[in-house]
Amino acid sequence: MACTDSLLLDLSGLVDRIIERGLNGLPIEEQLAGFAELINLAGFPMKRASIGMRTLHPQFGALTYIWRPDEDRVEYSPQKRTVQELAAFRQSPVNFMLKSGETTLRHRLDSGEELAFPILEKLRGEGMTDYAAGIVRYDTASHGSSALEGVFFSCATDDPAGFHTGQLQQVFELLPYFAIAVKSRLTYDVASTVTKTYLGKDAGRRVLTGEIERGTTQTIKAVIWYFDLQGFTNLAETTPGEQMIAMLDEYFGAVVGAVEAYGGDVLKFMGDGLLAIFKFSDDGGACCSRAIGAADELLGTMATINNRRKAEGLVLTNFSLALHLGDLMYGNIGSEDRLDFTVIGPAVNMVARIQAMCRPLEQDLIISSAMAGSAVRERKRIFSIGQHVLRGIPEPQELFSLAAAD
Question: 154 and 93 in contact (C-beta within 8 Å)?
Fold first, then answer.
C-alpha cells in the first residue's frame, strides 16, 4: 500500500523529548517506557517493545528491557554469562543481524509458515501478527562482529494488518536519537558497576561523585575486618591453578556475601586476604553487632562449604578473622595518576597484628579490646584469651574471642 501523509504518525517534538530524557540521565527502564508510550500515543499499534545491549558486569554479558502497554513496569532481564544464555543468543534475531550486517529485520507472524527464531514462535503464541527489529551501532567498525556495540530495538503488534510500513520507518528514524539517550545512562551504569566491582560500593560511589583528588581523605570510625585464608602458600604450591582460583572464588564469595548482607564494605582483596569495614553510625553498638553478625554468618557458611568440598574430594582450608574498632583515614592515596581508595592509620596496623595472632593462639576469630568494649549486645558471648604482645605495638594488648551463637 502506498504511504499517504494521513497515515503517518505525528511525531513532532518527539526527538527533543527523547534527548531531554537522555540528558537527564533517567534510568534505562524509564527511557524505554517514555519512548514506547510516546509513539504509542501517536498511533503506532505496538503491543511489545524491547531493547538489548552489551554491558560490563561480572555476572551479566547483556541487558534486555521489555515494555508492554498493559503493564505498569518495564521487565528487566539480564543475560548471565552461561552456556544456556549463549545458546539462546545464537538463535536470536540480534545474532543473525550482527552476523549478516543487516540493520533492520521484519517478519509477519500470522502467515502460518515456520519462523526463523524461537522468540518469533513465542510472540506468535501470544497473538502477535507482525515483528520488526533494528540495530543502531555505536561503532561502525563493529559491523560484522558477533558482539553488539550499540542498541538492539524490537517491536511487535497484534493488529491484524500488522505495522504500517511508513509508520515503522518513522519509528526506526527515531532510533539513533533514542540510542544516544540510552548510551548516556548506560555509560554511567557501566562505570558504576566497574567502580563498585573493583573498589567496593561506598568507595565506588565516592569516586563517581568526584572524590578523586590525591590526598583527599576523611577520618571515619569503623569496625575493621581482616580476613585471611590459612596455609595458602603451601596450597598454592601443590594445587593446580584453576582449582586454586575456583576455591578462592568460592571462599571470597562467602566472605563478601556475609559482609554486604550486614551493611559492610569490602575495600580490597590482598592475595588470600580481604579487608572490609563496617562504618559507625549514631549507634556504635549496632555497628559492632553488624560486624559480629557477619562473622557468625561467615563461620556457618564456611563450615558448610568445607563439608561439601571435603565430600567432593576438593582442596579446602580454614580461615582466620580479626575484628578491631578504631579511627581510620579513608580516601585517595597514591601517585598523581594512579590512586587507591583505601584506609590507613594505626587501627589498620593493629588489626593486621591481631590477625597474625590467630595461628599461634589457635583461634579462628580474635576481637580487640576496643571492639569487645563496644559490642554491648554480644558481651555475654565475648571472652578473654589473655594479654599478648603484638609486633610493633608498644604495650601488651588483651585479646578476646567469641563463643558460638545460640
Answer: yes
CB 165 within 8 A of CB 3: yes
What's the pLDDT tens digit per position in 294-353? 999 999 999 999 999 999 999 899 999 999 999 988 888 788 778 777 788 899 999 999
Burial of 208 (0-12, 13-18, 19+ CB in 10 A): middle
Directed axis angle between helix 14-23 and helix 165-199, to 10°?
A: 0
3-state secondary structure of 164: coil
Sign for the CA dihedral angle at 262, 264, 269, 272 comes to negative
CB atoms within 10 A of CB 285: 13
Q: At what angle do helices 14-23 and 28-41 cross, to 10 degrees?
A: 170
Residue 163, SS3 per DSSP: coil
The residue behind cell 575486618 is: 225
User: CB of 375 within 8 A of CB of 369?
Assistant: no
> Which of helix, strand or coil describes residue 146?
coil
Tally of residues, the chain: 406
Phi, psi of 289 (to 5 degrees): -65, -40
Q: List the domains of the chain with CATH numbers.
A: 5-198 (3.30.450.40), 211-402 (3.30.70.1230)
Q: Helix, strand, or coil here: 224?
A: strand
**Angstrom distance (rounded) from CA 242 to CA 236:** 11
Model pTM above 0.85: no
d(CA 181, CA 170): 18
pLDDT in tens, 351-401: 999 999 999 999 999 999 999 999 988 989 999 999 999 998 888 999 999
User: Alpha-carbon distance 261 to 267, whole Å?
Assistant: 15
Residue 281 and residue 278: Cα distance in Å, rounded? 9
Distance CA 146, CA 100 (A): 10
Query: In 3-state terms, what secondary structure has residue 302?
Result: helix
- Asked if 41 contacts 9 with a C-beta cutoff of 8 angstroms, the reply is no
